[in-house]
Amino acid sequence: MGKALDLYDEQEFNACLQCAICTGSCPTARVIEGYNPREIILRYIMYGEQEEVLNSTMIWHCTTCHTCQERCPHSIRICGLLTHIMNLAAKRGNVPETLKSGIKLMIETGWSIQATQRSDRIREELGLNRLEKPNTDEIRRIFSEAGLDTILELE
Amino acid sequence: MKKTEENDNAAAVNEEPRIGVYVCHCGLNIGGSVDCEAVALSAAKLDNVVIADHQLYTCSEPGQERIKQDIAEHGLNRIVVAACSPRMHEPTFRSCVQDAGLNKYMLEMANIREHCSWVHLHDKAAGTEKSKDLVRMAVARARYLEPQEEIDVPVIKKALVIGGGVAGIQAALDLADSGYEVVLVEKEPSIGGRMAQIDKTFPTMDCSICILAPKMAEVGRHPNITLMSLTEVTNIGGYIGNFSVTLRHKAKYVNEDCSACSDCMKACPQHAPNEFDVGLATRKAIYIPFAQAVPSQYVIDMDLCLNKNGVRVCEKCVEACERKCINFEDHDREETFDVGTIIVCTGVDVFDAAQIPQYQYKKAPNVITSLEFERLINAGGPTHGQLIRPSDHRIPKSVAFVQCVGSRSRKTNPYCSNVCCMNTIKDALLIKEHWPETEIKVFYIDIRAFGKGFEDLFQRSKMEGVQFIQGLPGEIVQRKNGNLRMIGELMMLHELYDIEVEMVILSVGLKPSIGSDVVRKYLTLSRTSGGFFMVAHPKLRPVDTATRGVFLAGCSEGPKDIKEAVTQASAAAARANIIMHRGMVTVEAITARVDESMCTGCGLCAKVCPYQAIQINDRKKAVVIDAACSGCGTCSAECKFDAITMRHFTDRQILAQIDAFTEFEPEKKILAFCCNWCSYAGADFAGISRMQYAPQVRIIRTMCSGRVAQNFIEHAFARGVGVVLLSGCHIGDCHYIDANTFAEKRYKRMRRLMKQNGLDNNRMQLVWVSAAEGQKFQEKINSLVEKLKTVTPEEIKNSMRFFSEREKQRKEKKQKTRAGK
Ligand SMILES: Cc1cc2nc3c(=O)[nH]c(=O)nc-3n(C[C@H](O)[C@H](O)[C@H](O)COP(=O)(O)OP(=O)(O)OC[C@H]3O[C@@H](n4cnc5c(N)ncnc54)[C@H](O)[C@@H]3O)c2cc1C
Ligand code: SF4
Ligand code: SF4
Ligand code: SF4
Ligand code: SF4
Questions:
Q1: Residue B574 belongs to a domain with what CATH number?
Q2: How many CB atoms lie within 10 A of CB B5?
Q3: Which of A117, B60, B284, B529 has the highest Cβ tally under 10 A?
């Protein structure tokens, strides 16, 4: 089993003022309707709605940009909590399909965005060298060490 | 029972002690986590204890009655009360034993509440064992208590008030009206403080300067008040009733004949931003901060004036002044005088909003602070009361207020600033009064409208159409036209807002004024976590400080509104009045005494005394000047010949406490020496706040960490203590000037000594803890318990052998010196 980075500390989050600076700062919240980091803290920590939060798809919208955390007057590690929640959710199988296929692609090809004939051509035109195929064995090993293969049932 | 030989001899000198021990349940405060009956039973078995009992409330009338009866009935001559902190109830029980005919110094308290039950709430077994230890230590000390006579010293009937805001003004007027001489010191050219800067005051909406100016004028002409503006405190020494104060009067370059006609100002060519208008307007190099200033007198800002360092290039003001008041030869002057009481009213500054970059303060011109708003809306201000936005001098059609800027934040000020919610409501109403069409939005977390008349004002503002929006903006973005986009979350409706307004007012919080720093230094006042001064007791002594004779009023104690500041000021004046009216203060009988037969006249004591209270007389003997001695005990700790006795904190008493402490399993425990003012109070604070920590520690209280002699620590190690903690006020905060630096020296010496002799010197620890740092104390103890686990039996044995040997040698050497004489 891999070791997930865990920044969870309930006491710290209980100090949340519900000032809404986090959501007001969140670039994702501006484009994804209903995405609300403040509400995730409220539900997950203060109202004890862990189950509901862990099963929701909303949590996967966080891009871990840290803007909320940077501006929170209480230095609450909001982004840390979201990472923690995403880790737990993944372990119970709540991972969006797009993310799964992205990871699969990476394991298979070594790229998160695949090189195409078109990209090869553009590189050539720009005088850049051809991309070497990455060592996917190594990537696979890293992912498996982190426990991703079991979580995502990749085998 | 084991006792050291030395202590045995000493005990014999005294009358046979007959001790009564009273263990208090304090309801469930102690009884809930300590088995008080078991503690009393164990005390009953100690030598000299005639009677030991437990009571629900020892401080209650029946509780005290019981002690008095027992004293009469059983001929008790010493009383031990195991209850709350002596800082709380020592005076109560002292007067109780006094009523029963004992000298009040025959009382000893064991602190089993703040230092035990409240910090070990969930471990009754450990709490009970610790209480037994604490009581045994108290009984051991009680055996050696001696009666003491206190002396009265006269009080100088003159008061010093530091800071001329509304609080300082009120305190000075009250004392002056009572007939006392008052010196009011203000660092700025005029008194008035923040209240002079604001336009109207909530909740009544009266004009601030209109109600303040008459009081300021009264200060200026009161026969009992000496007003010293543009003056700084440069030193304060002494003690209650007899403080010695040194001030520096900064040069004003304009003498008292000035009639404030303003001719000079018109002539002066030099401009600079005006501090009083928060930089929104300019002033000249020769200026008066505002029209109603008291003293009503111009001053010259030499940093701005063209004439520098005696080189005269400009004579314009001198030529303009008909009364010939301007004097470039003026210079700073120092002055020293004595006062009996001091009231600290150093007030507040406002938070620097530029610390929160996403709110664009100082970057976007139309984002201003609430203090700047006060000057803009004020008829006497730079815009004559027109609320114009700085970028294009237009009156804004829409305004947004942002609350809690800099307050309630772990990054900036952790506390609520108390006045900004109401201030914003007031400001919003003021705008509506002048320009009813203005759209006003208030972005907030909570609205705190708790005082009398506050809710009414809040409702009124809603009726006037002010919109309250829950959810602070995440950021403010400036548009090309100078308007501002407020971007955030509309919490009530679960959606985001992106609202454009023409002007933003940041509701900045309050913070302790810079001027409070120097006062803190000289008066060694403690501060709470937000940086405001700490009172002696938050409920029952709300204007007293831990330093007797020094009082607090206004925002120096914490953010508050004018009404509260004035109330506190009158309270502080009344408290100071009590002392000066009585004319005498009783000084605790804890000063040093020299035993001439032991004194070799080496003069070390005189050298270390922070108060120069010791002189060596012509017979080559040290003499203590009682009135100057503060009882820190540094001399006694330094004297190599045991020639100095600290009354009520004698070597014998402290060594007896150490002996009692080490009787059972000393290797598993921590012995902490705490000074009365900071670290003992800090440990009390941890108790009051119920901060839980490991139960292995026992505290011995001394007045100052400088009292803790190296031989106390060595004795503890010789008897097998696991860890010794020395604790006092932070360096620079010592209540005895710098006596704690001696504690630091001894600590370093001990560490070196242990290291050189192959002992684990991490068993000797030092920590500075202020009265507000309960958490620091908690953390230190918890970390020391980890250390304790690493101390091996081998290590304990080695250190016991090493330090016992040293003690033996020391004793022999002393005997030789004595025989030699
Ligand atoms: C923007 C704003 C609006 C407000 N509006 C209201 C309101 O509408 N109603 C209301 O009730 N309250 C209001 N308040 C609060 C009010 O200003 C304070 O309650 C009041 O000023 C407290 O008075 P003070 O004397 O304690 O402190 P201050 O007014 O801060 O005065 C302290 C004085 O001490 C001087 N000083 C500091 N250090 C030294 C030193 N070392 N030596 C000599 N002098 C020193 C300072 O120069 C200053 O003159 C407002 C506050 C602000 C910031
Ligand atoms: S910014 Fe911080 S304090 Fe404010 S709601 Fe978000 S997490 Fe809570
Ligand atoms: S870290 Fe996540 S929640 Fe926070 S601002 Fe970025 S995307 Fe939003
Ligand atoms: S008074 Fe209101 S605006 Fe000021 S810090 Fe407290 S809650 Fe915030
Ligand atoms: S060192 Fe302290 S105890 Fe000794 S004489 Fe000086 S003030 Fe008094």
A1: 3.50.50.60
A2: 8
A3: B284
